[in-house]
């Protein structure tokens, strides 16, 4: 396998863009990435796009706006891990020598989705459990209840990631929310699924993100930003769950744990020691609290202590979601898996501004996607580890 | 005459006059899956037999959703119910929310779970408490 380098990143501000189409959003992110990489759009040899609810041919109708055609392009759907999957496939193409440079794009307009289907909690269409009211909040409410029963988490612990991430998001220019929240405000916001209140949930968002990856040869020849340290995508893993039975536990999500272990092995890093920064799927505050141990940032059963010690906060052992995460940045579903990789690249380049984790050398980008009947949920986990 | 439909075609089968949750007991791995798929979802074997699921189970974890979901009005109590054969089923629980605790015993019942605008009754399964309860977090 060949080494794969990050050459450029771009994204739109996440939030409500109901006057923009997915093509406009996607093209804005792709333009920003091409400019950041300082290449001509015609250099790109392939394109992958993460998207869930967009129209057919979303990647082609987006990239033609930059004069990009004739190259192989694919739109990839893997629920909230769609963007991670786009990055993964591009990484694979370059690692195995299929091409030397390409773009991974992610785009979503929840405003367009809501116009079509109306607002409300979303279950997976046609799924048996979804028909009986299984939604993301109900699944993660069960996870929060498990955290309280099995890990001794209090409501304050459950709300902690939301407080921390909203604080981080205040200074992120791309963030949907730019305000801090207190425990009291979180608990006073409307109850969605006990104990998850509205301010423990990520918002619905529109937006796009893009990452340009390339081979070492291409990087050496064409990288213009010589002041930037070279940042590699040292590992990329997509894991899918298997049949669900009574041994499954939301606190020990098999896909999440397996992909983290495998990604660390490939990258040759030890999660609890070497990873300096994480951007992850915090669709719900309690979800992030449960993930510290699953990602290997701390030993099993010690996630609550990890949080209480401030290890996941800015200035802590391993800041998690310095961008503000999905909770503050927003979550345009298909885009988030690309956005987390772009954010980790910016961290390792030292270009994360006021959200910079000082001295970050190794970072992890993670996404989870989907809850389904009969499959151990979440259904898909995507993890990339970047190093410099 | 009342118009009735089952909420999900694979979820319930008629056995005599009653509706049952039909599972598949795999001879190769011994696991019971639900609903019945083309092959065993645990091991891909096709060897085994259709068998009704146990009608009682234990509540593994649950949620109380406070906003509407599709045709359901809040509060919606729902959870994962673990059956003696090791199968996990997701279903709604009809009970006083204060009486619901993880680890409690539940039994399955079938009946109307929602009514369409045209009066069609949608038939499904749900769980109700059974037996004396002990322990568990609220």
Automatic annotation (TrEMBL), chain A:
PANTHER family noted in UniProt: ACETYL-COA C-ACETYLTRANSFERASE, NON-SPECIFIC LIPID-TRANSFER PROTEIN-LIKE 2
Q: Which PROSITE patterns does UniProt cross-reference here?
A: THIOLASE_2
Biological process terms from the Gene Ontology for this record are: lipid transport
- UniProt keyword annotation of Zinc present: no
Q: Which InterPro entries match?
A: Thiolase (IPR002155), Thiolase-like (IPR016039), Thiolase_C_2 (IPR055140), Thiolase_CS (IPR020613), Thiolase_N (IPR020616)
Name the UniProt key words of this record, in alphabetical order: Lipid transport, Lipid-binding, Transferase, Transport
Q: EC number(s) of the enzyme? A: 2.3.1.176
Which stretches make up the Thiolase C-terminal domain? Answer: 249-373
In its UniProt entry, the species of origin is given as Desulfocicer vacuolatum DSM 3385
Molecular-function annotations in GO = acetyl-CoA C-acyltransferase activity; lipid binding
**Record-annotated Thiolase N-terminal domain positions:** 10-216
Return the protein name.
Answer: propanoyl-CoA C-acyltransferase
Tell me one Pfam family matched here: Thiolase_N
Automatic annotation (TrEMBL), chain B:
Classification via InterPro entries: ChsH2_C, NA-bd_OB-fold, Thioester_dehydratase-like
Provide the ChsH2 C-terminal OB-fold domain boundaries. 52-109
Provide the protein name. Uncharacterized OB-fold protein, contains Zn-ribbon domain
């Amino acid at each position: 396998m060949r080494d794969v380098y990050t050459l450029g990143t771009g994204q739109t501000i996440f939030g409500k863009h109901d006057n923009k189409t997915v093509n406009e959003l996607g093209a804005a992110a792709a333009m920003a990435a091409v400019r950041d990489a300082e290449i001509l759009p015609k250099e790109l040899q392939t394109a992958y796009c993460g998207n869930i609810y967009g129209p057919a041919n979303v990647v082609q109708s987006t990239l033609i706006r930059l004069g990009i055609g004739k190259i192989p392009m694919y739109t990839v759907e893997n629920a909230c891990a769609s963007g991670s999957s786009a990055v993964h496939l591009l990484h694979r193409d370059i690692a195995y020598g299929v091409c030397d440079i390409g773009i991974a794009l992610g785009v979503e307009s929840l405003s367009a989705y809501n116009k079509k289907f109306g607002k409300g909690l979303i279950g997976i269409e046609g799924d048996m459990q979804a028909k009986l009211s299984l939604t993301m909040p109900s699944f993660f409410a069960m996870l929060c209840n498990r955290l309280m029963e099995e890990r001794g988490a209090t409501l304050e612990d459950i709300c902690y990631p939301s407080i921390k991430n909203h604080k981080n998001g205040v200074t992120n220019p791309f963030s949907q929310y730019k305000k801090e929240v207190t425990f009291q405000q979180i608990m006073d916001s409307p109850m969605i699924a006990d104990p998850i209140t509205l301010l423990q949930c990520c918002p619905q968002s529109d937006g796009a993100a893009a990452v340009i990856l390339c081979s070492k040869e291409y990087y050496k020849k064409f990288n213009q930003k010589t002041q930037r340290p070279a940042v590699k995508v040292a590992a990329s893993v997509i894991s899918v769950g298997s049949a669900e039975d009574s041994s499954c536990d939301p606190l020990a999500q098999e896909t999440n744990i397996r992909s983290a272990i495998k990604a660390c092995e490939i990258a040759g890093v030890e999660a609890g020691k070497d990873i300096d920064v994480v951007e992850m799927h915090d669709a719900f505050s309690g979800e992030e609290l449960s993930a510290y141990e699953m990602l290997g940032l701390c030993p099993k059963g010690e996630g609550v202590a990890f949080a209480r010690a401030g290890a996941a906060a800015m200035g802590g052992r391993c800041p998690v979601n310095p961008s503000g995460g999905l909770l503050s940045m927003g979550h345009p579903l298909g885009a988030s898996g690309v956005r987390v990789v772009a954010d980790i690249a910016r961290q390792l380049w030292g270009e994360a501004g006021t959200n910079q984790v000082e001295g970050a050398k190794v970072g992890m980008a993670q996404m989870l996607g989907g809850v389904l009947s009969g499959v151990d949920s979440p259904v898909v986990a995507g993890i990339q580890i970047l190093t410099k | 005459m009342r118009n009735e439909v089952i909420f999900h075609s694979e979820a319930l089968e008629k056995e005599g006059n009653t509706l049952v949750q039909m599972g598949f007991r795999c001879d190769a791995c011994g696991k019971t899956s639900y609903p019945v798929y083309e092959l065993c979802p645990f091991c891909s074997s096709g060897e085994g037999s259709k068998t009704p699921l146990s009608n009682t189970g234990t509540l593994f974890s649950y949620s109380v959703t406070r906003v509407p979901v599709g045709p359901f009005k809040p509060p919606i109590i729902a959870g994962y119910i673990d059956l003696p054969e090791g199968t996990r089923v997701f279903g709604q629980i009809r009970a006083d929310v204060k009486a619901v605790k993880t680890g409690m015993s539940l039994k399955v019942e079938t009946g109307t779970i929602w009514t369409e605008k045209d009066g069609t009754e949608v038939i499904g399964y749900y769980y109700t408490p059974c037996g004396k309860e002990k322990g568990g977090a609220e």
